[in-house]
Amino acid sequence: MLQSVQATPAERYDQLIRDALGAQAMRVAVVHPCSPEALQGALEARDEGLFDPVLVGPETRIRRIAEAADISLQGLPIVPAEHSHAAAARAVEMAVAGEVGALMKGSLHSDELLGAVVGGASGLRTERRISHVYAMAIPAYPKPLIITDAAINIAPTLAHKRDICQNAIDLLHVMGVPRPHVAVLAAVETVNPAMPSTLDAAALTVMATRHQITGALVDGPLAFDNAISLQAASVKGIVSPVAGSADILLVPDLEAGNMLAKQLIYLSQADAAGLVLGARVPIILTSRADSLRVRLASSALARLVASRQRLQAVDRELA
What we know:
The chain is α/β, with parallel strands linked by helices. 44% of the residues lie in helices and 16% in strands.
């Protein structure tokens, strides 16, 4: 699985893609791909063998955009949908019916796609709250690092954070990390009643010891420096099984997570593959600013997660 020892970010993502190619093949509904970038992203993943795209959206418009951009759609099925809202609804129906194993955002707003996924009648909701993860490969950090949630949950409650945490843990299990270290971030390392993020961090730590969060070591509150630097933790006298070795950074809110992730991307040359978890199928969210490697890594993560979800569904049927 994804290697961490002396591997460059490029090598880590290349390994992730190789791992994904060993998982079960899947079809992906590309929702409202009405831009050259959205069409190209689907074709790139297909050409790498990561998934078979099914384009869902207004067929005439999709073909016109492809022709103007000199993009060949030969061999790509198109499921007609009049507009972006209808495309999101149709893609969800396809996922519920098992016709596709994942969804990929095209040129519609994320809220529109996710609204169709979590709608009361969608069939894709689970008992978990959906959340976004950035799977980051950072040159200055010796292993992959997950930041969550930096894109969906604006001001998560304690219950939401529990689900956000478990979603990220489950992803790292898929990536080959059997017992991830989760650092629940705050501005300080001590519980301060005036800082709700520290109270949530302490509660999540206890929840992990009571098996309300499973499959990981969870500790907090931890500040960013001592979450990723053992030296910083030692200087401050912090004794923690997670300090200096975090695999997951659970942020207090979306603003903190978004700023942290983008600082690492733009100041530390980090790559950040994005995925939405917690639904019955994974959802690929990419940005026009993403590199080819990041777009492919996001698709690779989705394929690994979808393969695991299929195996879990089979196990439930056999139980």
